[in-house]
Amino acid sequence: MSAEMRCVFITGGTGYMGQRLIPHLLERGHHVRALVRAGSEGKVPSGCTTIVGDALNEDSYAHQVSPADTFVQLVGVAHPSPTKEAEFRKIDLVAGLAGIAAANASGVKHLVYLSVAQPAPMMKAYIAVRAECEEKIRLSQMNATILRPWYVLGPGHRWPYALIPLYWVCERFPFTRKGAQRLGLITLDQMSHALVCAIENPAHGIRIMGVPEMREWRINTAQKHSAIA
Fold first, then answer.
1. How many other CB atoms are there within 10 angstroms of residue 128's CB atom?
2. What whole-number distance in Å separates Cα of residue 13 and Cα of residue 96?
3. Residue with the larger pLDDT of the pair 184 and 146
């Protein structure tokens, strides 16, 4: 892996995933710029540069993305469910398109977009919004990594642990194996590691990372020392 230090702009930095990702990046020697709402400046770790703006309006922050070379889009509705279709379109879609536009206008070298596993038998509205953003990324012709988790296990997100035996069974049969792997569970640590790996190893073109690939991705522990040396 490359030991090059990155300058990373993150939307959703005070959210469930962003709060875990930012400390990892800072620890590994990267510069981090996090977009926050006014009044939330104190929610980001020390050492992170705060950019006050509205994730739903690229004009409020696009001019402050530079000098970032990497843009990470994490904004999304908390605890997605089939009942939140209107919120997906009002928040996830608008923030996603705004982030893509801001990243493209700023000339960042690599976009990292947190999407969702697809196809899937449920959460159609959620998937449709993420797929729309993915298509916008393709049309932008930016280098991008699209991460497709299904459900991230962590604090406040533990009920699917009860499904682990079912996953184990489904992964043993050829006709259910691929679906069980694509819609598999991933831990918060695995998800954070996958994001770090995506940032530290920029894609050339479009790279799609599903659950099996994210589970296998490993951080180069030696990079931490070279990055902060």
1. 14
2. 14
3. 146
Which amino acid, one-letter code, is at 130? R
Q: Sign (positive/negative) of CA torsion 187, 96, 19, 144?
A: positive
> Contact 102/140 with Cβ under 8 angstroms?
no
Q: Which two tokens stand for residue 9?
A: 């702009």
DSSP 8-state symbol, 93: I
Predicted confidence (pLDDT) per residue in 53-72, tens digit: 999 999 999 999 999 999 99
Look up the pTM and report it: 0.91
d(CA 139, CA 155): 36
- Cβ-contact 214, 208 below 8 angstroms: no
Contacts of 200 (CB under 8 A, 6+ apart): 1, 2, 4, 6, 28, 219, 220, 223
Residues near 22 by beta carbon (within 8 Å), at least 6 away in sequence: 10, 13, 32, 34, 44, 45, 48
Which residues fall within 8 angstroms of residue 179, CB to CB, at 6 or more apart? Answer: 170
